[in-house]
What we know:
Largest sheet of chain B: none
Strand content of chain B: under 5%
CATH topology of the largest domain in chain A: Rossmann fold
CATH topology of chain B: Non-ribosomal Peptide Synthetase Peptidyl Carrier Protein, Chain A
Oligomer: heterodimer
Low-confidence stretches of chain B: none
Shape of chain A: globular
Structural class of chain A: alpha/beta
Largest sheet of chain A: 8 strands, mixed
Amino acid sequence: MTLNEALALIKSSAGRGGEKKPHYLVCGFEPLHLKTFLSAHLLDRLPASGVGILNGVYGDLTGNLSSAAKSSALAAAVVIEWGDIDPRLGLRSSGGWAEEVKPDILASAAVRLSRIEAALAGLAERMPAAVVAPCLPLLPIGNTIRAQSSIAELELDQLVTSFLLRISRLPGVRVVERSRFDGVPRTDRLDAQMELLAGFPYTTSFADTLAGAFTEVLYQSVPKKGLITDLDDTLWSGIVGEVGADKVTWQQESHTQIHGLYQQMLAQLASCGVLLAVCSKNEQTVAESALARQDLFLKSESLFPVCANWEPKSQSVGRILRTWNIAEDSVVFVDDSPMELDEVRRAFPGIVCREFPKKDPAKLWALLCELRDLFGKPVLVAEDRLRQQSIRASAAIQEMGEAAGTDEFLAGLDATVTLDWRFDSSDLRPLELINKTNQFNLNGRRIGEGEWQRYREDSKAVLSVVSYADKFGPLGKVAVVLGTAEPGAKGRGTLKVSHWVMSCRAFSRHLEHHTLDSLFRETGADQIEFDFEATDKNKPLQDFFRAAGIAPDADGAYRLSRSGFSPPSTELPHHVVNLTK
Amino acid sequence: MSDIQERVVRCFSNVFPDLPADEIPRASTASLPAWDSVAHVTLLSSIAEEFGQPFEIEDYEELVSYPLIVDRIENQTRHA
């Protein structure tokens, strides 16, 4: 994006309705073009919203961090430059960097970075903060030629790297990967004239790159949930049905490491909670015999289900989607055959289909990087590790057919439903559920981390996070209700529910009934008003509303009164635990 | 209106979206309150990008009105 394109976009977006979403650009320099580009990139990323950019004063990064923490901003973009770490490292300083000064520069840099860290911790408690470490070239402080690192430069780098490691562990802080800017030489990032003239250090093209990176990190795409892989010439080299299970290869010594690398990538994804399944044109027993090999680079139990047959692959993919109970747009399909990819793509246009480049390591490298981006998420939560196990349990229950719906079956589950009414700002799982769940979702509306934090600060907010466990194992946190209770609601009032989501893994357990029951009990509200909106995907919630008799009243509002609420015809046999403050 | 003038007007319009188009030819730092130091640097950066011609530091002090900016661009273009 050029500066003029950014300015034109901002101008054309001036008429966007609704409240402007405030963001804070925290830096120690004059924000100038970076503010323009950040505004434009955010407008591009948030097409339904207006965007406002707040900023602080020149030369006081730490103070600006504190100001941002007190602001109404929903997210912060924080840029740290060498001059913020020590003013003598900036172009506008006259402090010098002679040898005798360097120990003092290093000592002061350590102190300043600690102060920045403390201020960042305060900021990140209230909103997500994307942080960029110094990306401008250092002043020529080294005593060496430029081709040789100097001790002072290495010590500064070490201070910064150590600082980044510390802040990356702060909840809410997202460190922008420095290699993201590798495509721009450091010398092309600095606009020395603009720095001396106006206190703004970046070229416009680099300001655009920076703003794009901030937006990408603060507003990440919803990660995919599952990957379906082919076997022959994809997970391994060779046709297992022809050469046999012991002859397919994926190792360096057989020059088929390209498949081994792919296996290791899948193992990494599985360890992060990504669902993996197999879709292969093979005999089931033949495929399973190769998957049973002990030298596979991923655990074969990570692959579920394994669909090996001679049907069109789209049919197997459909079966896998039903087993996982997730939407096609949450899934990636990898196969070496363009024809198979095309067949699946036609049946499921929402699936991301990628060709396995069995002869091209450079393309494999690109595929692995793309998979990281498709499945990457800011933080891993405990539920990520439970997902595969719970999908297997759900599949086992599905296989029981109608027997799984009986009172006897439910009673035999020995289930515990836990409703946690406490607001833990460091736990992002409830927010993840709100932003990932499509089917049992009150209205499909998503919320950002900053808005989430504002709910936490709202004394009227009511949050219930529902966890579930039974004899098949824990599902973890699977449902969230978020709303507001008007003052006086205790006893007789209305609880307005703005968000209600439940993971598809928890369907058929009557958790929704427990949730409503507990909402009435814990809030004391006389009625619950749902901010319902039909979407293309929330049919399961619509079905539940229909079954529970929740329909629009004369005002068009979806309300459920305490007297009108009745548990389902079956008993609710679960053990219920409420965790309150 | 010449091509240069049209392009300069477009830059003005992006930086000062509330300024009516017919007032742009008379705009100057003295007459337009919104033309502060930040807007000045933004405007000249926008114009430099539009014409692919960077300004010198001293230009930032001299180019304080629409006519002066248009004159400078026309001169630069003539001597290019």
